[in-house]
Amino acid sequence: MELGVFKPLLTSLAMPPMAPLLLALFGVLLDWRRKRGGLALIALSLAALWLLSCHGTAVWLARHALPQFEAVTTAQLKANQVQAVVILGGGVLPGAPEYGGAPQPSPVTAARLRYGIWLARQSGLPLAFSGGIGWAADGMQPASEADVAARVAQQEFGFALRWSEAVSRDTDGNARLLAPVLMREGVQRIALVTDAWHMPRSVAAFERAGFTVTPAPMGFTLPVESPLLQWLPSAQGLLASRQVLRECLGLAVGQFTPL
Description:
CATH superfamily of the largest domain: HUPs
Strand content: 5-15%
Largest sheet: 5 strands, parallel
CATH class of the largest domain: Alpha Beta
Structural class: alpha/beta
Helix content: 40-55%
Distance between the termini: 17 Å
Number of helices: 11
CATH topology of the largest domain: Rossmann fold
């Protein structure tokens, strides 16, 4: 069994909401055994869960805990002599009844695909897509991210992918497996499309694979509600915080082993 299958489980244990809940459970056990610190741990875990469920916390973390990347312009692509736009997959919906059960891109993949196609049209550059079946979707996903993206790009946007890599299972695999496909045709300077919170790891992976990367981030973690609502817990805030913290964890672990 490949070690990668354990990555989603270990990540879930280290990320909210599981990590604060486990801390609260440990506090309950300490209090039940009449050990000191149990109630303090429970209070700490609840406070952490509250803060991490606020979209304002996610915005702050994205700005201060991750390297920052600005939106790219077509002028920058030309100045950097970019040869192709590369989109990274972000998951697939296994079956959508409203589409007759056909697999569809997840909201993350759909947003990346839309922006990548727009950027390719604006710049006149060819388009590549990289994404197979992620470790977390093992056994649940009937088609690769790249196959779904190619179909949607053609049917809904009238745009054909020039290159497609459909075997990778994580960010490091995206770069490692797409590299020979592009470099066979002399493509070494790329514009990389992924969410802003995912860009630090992605740039590092593609530079390790030998590419010269111009970041083309999208999906920035920005304020979307009034100041009051930003500091009230919500599922949206928890998801945004989790995404940012996951990337922080990935960058830290990636110093020792590629993710």
